[in-house]
Every structure is written in C-alpha cells, then in structure tokens.
Amino acid sequence: MSVANVANVIEARGLTRKFGAVNALDGFDLAVSPGRIVGLIGPNGSGKTTALRALLGLTRLDSGHLNVAGCDPWKQRESLMREVAYIPDTGILPRWMRVCDLIDHVEAVHPAFDRDKAEQLLAKTPVTASRTIGGLSKGMQVQLHLSLILAINTKLLVLDEPTLGLDVLYREQFYDTLLGDFMEGRRSILVTTHEVREIEHVLTDVVFIRKGKSVLAESIDDIRAQFIKLTTNAGATVPGTFLSRRPTLSGVEYLYRNQLRQTLDGLGATTTPNLVELFVAT
Known about the structure:
With about 280 residues, the chain is an alpha/beta fold. The chain contains nine helices and 13 strands. About 35% of the residues are buried.
C-alpha cells in the first residue's frame, strides 16, 4: 500500500480488503477535505466498518492509496492517534472509573486535551464529576464521551453510529453539541449511521457505499443542484431517463439526475429528494 501526499484530511483511493471469498472493500474511494462533515452511509455488510477500521489503522489493506491526517494509518498509528479522535458504536469507557478520574487520565495521556473545554462541555450536561461511569445512563455516557473527544484538538473526528440506542432527545442534543463544536473550528468529521434523516441537516457531504464501493460521493449543495424528484399522476408520461420510480399515496414519484427542470414543468410537483430517497434510488 502506498501513501499519497495530499491536502485532504482523508485521501483513500482504490482500497481493497478481502476476507476469504468476500470483498469487504472493492476499490473504495473517499476524500474528506478540511472543515467538512461527511456522512458515510450504507446498508449492513456494505463495507462501512472495514473502511473505518482501515482509516484508524486497525485493518491492513490488500491494496490502495490511503493517507489520514498526513499518516499511513497502519505504519504510523501512534502519530495518527494524535490527530484523530474516535467514538465507536459501543461503549468503551471504563465503568468502574469516576468521571473526574477519567478526565485526569485523558489529561495525562493526551497532549492535545483541553481540560477547561471538557469541563465547560460537561457543565451543559447532567453528568457530574463525582459519579461513576457505570452509574450513568447510556445517553449520559455518550455525552461524557463526546465532551472528552471534543476537548481534544485533532484534525479529524470519526463517529461510528454514535447515537445508537439513544432516545430522540439525547440524539438531538448530541448533534447540536457536535455542530456547535464544528462551527467553532476547522475540524473534519466523518460519521456513519443508519439514522440518515437525523444527520442530514448537519452534513456538508455524503458518500454512499455498497458492496465495498463508493457509488455516490457528492456535496449536499451539489446534490440539491443535480437531483430532482417529480411527483405526478400514475398515468402521466414523463420525459428522459429516471433513476427510480415509486408509487405513493400522493402519486408516482420519479427521481432524476441532471434533468432540466423546465422539461418537468406542468407534469406535477418538483422537489429536492432527501438523502433516504436518494440512497434507495442509487
């Protein structure tokens, strides 16, 4: 595996990883620029987990070019961990430790940790320093983990299903906190989730992955410019080649890419598809 000299925080080209007869990654591409929030979206078994593990230096690749925060993740993982923060989909905080002790520990082991910022973030939550982590609810543990991670000055934050198992209120609070931190600096964020609707409003870019390949990689602005949804009567004749056709209670929905809007005038209602509709279509 060779490493490219790139300005992107993540530059992955042609990544392959095979487990037996299964191609977990099959020429996967991903580019994340500084100061972007990128959603990596795909069904179970699409290669998301393998891609994240490769980016974090936890999985050796068979081939491809990969550079994360200026590092080869497999060969330079110690340097990588100074520039990348990570929240996995399962709780990994030591349940026996008190919150104050965990803060002391992170401060001692990570040179880029800002204790004042961590305490300011935690002050906005119900998490108190004297409590043990095992005594916190799952939502409070996620808030604690996020506060600690956001207090580490890194180039990249990787989130793997970060709100899995949280109720609606905690999910909203999580993304509000995340977006607030993002607006304050130039940190890049890569997030995977099955809850596409709840993160659509915070993303700047999206990558769809299927069978180990990136099948769509666009900015949200380009998606709004390129894709259009037409809702019309079942018997209507529609022009051009559409990506998908779906009957609904309000009519038949057609999804187009790079279709001139004026060619659809008078045929029905036109809107921009949401990410769920686009994901299903592609």
